[in-house]
Specification:
Helix content is 30%, strand content 21%. The chain is an alpha+beta fold.
Length: 152
Amino acid sequence: MERLTQRDDQGNWCLKGVKWDQLRAGSTITKDVAEKLYGALCKLRDYENTDLSPEEVERVNDFSKSQASRLMKELQEEREKYRWIPVTEKLPKPEGYVLVSFENATLSDIARYEVDENGNGAFYPGDEDESYISFGLFVNAWMPLSEVYREK
């Protein structure tokens, strides 16, 4: 919404585009000033028709801002939780199941990541003992699996 008021260089407020001396007793109200006053009165009417007090308007604004901010933060957290993570950026925790993507295949698969006693890690399909490398597949990214559905 466009503001109807503004502050001058000294910090005094006024109706935008209307100087206080144009509203003094005995001043001639020009067509331009009358239109601006009428517009401001229409906005005041619209505000009063909401039946909200100034305090209630402030609470609504604060609530809207805080709700929007909270929802945006939650959305970002969900996006971060369920995104493809390049293996060059980070590897999953060993022994857990994840969804994997391959640089040389179009389908993704469920796999587990294991690290041997020498610290070397590999992705293994499901419960199989051979790594994807032995099948000629190279994992380029992974993401956590979503939670298992449980009927409430």
